[in-house]
Write a structure and sequence with these properties.
By secondary structure, the chain is of the alpha/beta class. It has two domains: 10-149, Response regulator (Rossmann fold, 3-Layer(aba) Sandwich), CATH 3.40.50; 158-253, Winged helix-like DNA-binding domain superfamily/Winged helix DNA-binding domain (Arc Repressor Mutant, subunit A, Orthogonal Bundle), CATH 1.10.10.10. Helices cover 39% and strands 17% of the residues. It has nine helices and eleven strands. It has helices at residues 10-15, 40-50, 62-72, 88-98, 112-121, 133-149, 184-195, 203-211, 220-233, and strands at residues 32-36, 55-59, 76-80, 103-107, 125-128, 158-160, 164-167, 172-175, 178-179, 243-246, 250-253. The protein has a five-stranded parallel sheet, with helices on both faces. It has a four-stranded antiparallel sheet with strand order 6-7-8-9, with no helix packed on it. A hairpin with a 2-residue loop joins strand 8 (172-175) and strand 9 (178-179). Helix 7 crosses helix 8. The longest helix is centred in the middle third of the chain and has 17 residues, at 133-149. The chain is globular and about 55 Å long.
């Protein structure tokens, strides 16, 4: 098993539980970040860069991460790829079974198989903690913005064509009346295309809007998630009526498609 964790220092252990104090410049309405990561240098970068805009909760194991998540309902979860106790992958699964809170996996080194696994589980990002501090902070801020970016704007609260229903206020999707379980990325992708219904969006535009500017992931992730979303909402995923591909240009959401035969 690869060891992604940094050694835990005594100083870091002493700070794990005193984690929901308000720091200088913080406000009780600031977004709350649950940081499940044992590297003190990562914690220091994030706290220093975001201390005036966010509140932090800390966890040193998978078990503690789930406990603190259930107690506080944070706005963003940052998960070390390898935490002691309950595996981080299982923490992610349990969190996303209940909510669509953005989850970012943290690792000391980039492994493509881990990155793909994280995204397939529904995480919004996979960040290497050895990257420049400015990039780590930028990716964290981008993940925080996702929750706000997909709130309903000047459009109806509910799209309902008799087959597919998207309730923006409740953040709920139904197909033929049955609730559909979507990950954060899948839901955000659907809402983004729905808001731009009948407009072609390039893969580059989708990558920037859903994963955030500066995200280094392959454009193949866009195609991967469109395929996953099709399998969940389309009557015939291989002959999609909603998530339409225009060769060489991108994708668009087709409003009120003709009924499937």
């Amino acid at each position: 098993m690869r060891n992604h964790r940094h050694p835990m220092t005594r100083q870091n252990q002493n700070h794990q539980s005193g984690s929901d104090r308000l720091g200088r410049g913080q406000h009780k309405n600031n977004p709350v970040i649950l940081l499940a990561e044992n590297a003190p240098e990562v914690r220091q970068v994030l706290e220093k860069g975001l201390q005036n805009n966010c509140r932090f909760l800390f966890a040193s194991s998978g078990n503690e991460a789930l406990k603190r998540f259930n107690e506080a309902s944070p706005d963003l979860v940052l998960l070390d790829v390898e935490l002691p106790g309950i595996p981080s992958w299982e923490v992610c699964r349990q969190v996303l079974d209940k909510t669509r809170v953005p989850i970012v996996f943290l690792s000391t080194s980039h492994h493509e198989d881990d990155a793909i696994r994280a995204l397939r589980l529904g995480a919004v990002d996979y960040v290497t903690t050895t990257t420049a501090p400015q990039i780590l902070l930028a990716r964290t801020r981008a993940a925080l913005r996702r929750k706000e970016a997909f709130l309903p704007e000047a459009m109806p609260q509910v799209y309902d064509d008799g087959y597919l229903q998207v309730n923006l206020a409740a953040q709920e999707v139904r197909v033929e009346g049955e609730a559909v379980s979507l990950t954060t990325i899948e839901y955000n992708l659907l809402v983004y295309l729905l808001k731009k219904a009948n407009q072609i969006c390039s893969a580059e535009q989708i990558l920037s809007q859903i994963w955030g500017a500066g995200y280094e992931a392959s454009l193949n992730y866009v195609h991967l998630y469109v395929g996953r979303l099709r399998r969940k909402i389309e009557h015939a995923p291989n002959q999609p009526k909603y998530l339409v591909n225009v060769y060489g240009k991108g994708y668009y959401f087709r409003l009120n498609p003709a009924p499937s035969m």
